[in-house]
Amino acid sequence: MNSTTLLTYLIACVFIICAPGPSVTFLITTSVEQGKNSAYRIIPGTFLGDLSAMILSFIGVGALIHSVPSFEIVLKYVGGALLIYLGALKIYQRNKANKEKNKLFLSGFLLTFFNPKTIIFFASFIPQFVNKNENIALQFFILGTLYLVVGLINDFTYATFAHYLGKLLGQKISRMAIIFGGGFLILSGILIVLK
């Protein structure tokens, strides 16, 4: 793998990861609502979710899910239901949200792992940058590690920025942001189920 391929991959990772999705929305709303330390507790869960999905895709589960529709349907409904549940929780319990470390960690993991697009994404995206004439396992390790590191930096940046922005905007605007974020999670869940 040459430096040009690696740089192209890194740039692609930054653009893909930085685009806010359901997990980033959950992270932002938690940071605004409960503070950055609570949001930081979600990050190891999203990291483990990405890592688990990545490993499963590397051993062929991504191709299996893509070729056997029933697997994708199960993941789709579980992932969609989870997004709807977390979105509703954000809206209806915004001042009573659970700050337990394990529950925030678990929410982050489930949110990332049960997104059906995650495993399929890893199965189709990373192999494009692998040179078949070189050590394939080492290349997957390097590319996977780079993706996870960019993801960690992205999550910590969003969580920290959202916390201070929430303080700057005040309680009323923060509450509106939480409701909007919860609505976005619900809408994302519905779209996943309907697709």
Automatic annotation (TrEMBL):
Transmembrane spans: 6-30, 42-68, 74-92, 104-130, 136-161, 173-194
Subcellular location field: Cell membrane
GO cellular component annotations of the record: plasma membrane
Source species of the chain: Lactococcus hircilactis
Protein name in the entry: LysE family translocator
Keywords from the UniProt entry: Cell membrane, Membrane, Transmembrane, Transmembrane helix
GO molecular function, one term: amino acid transmembrane transporter activity
PANTHER family: ARGININE EXPORTER PROTEIN ARGO, ARGININE EXPORTER PROTEIN ARGO-RELATED
Keyword Membrane: yes
Bilayer topology term: Multi-pass membrane protein
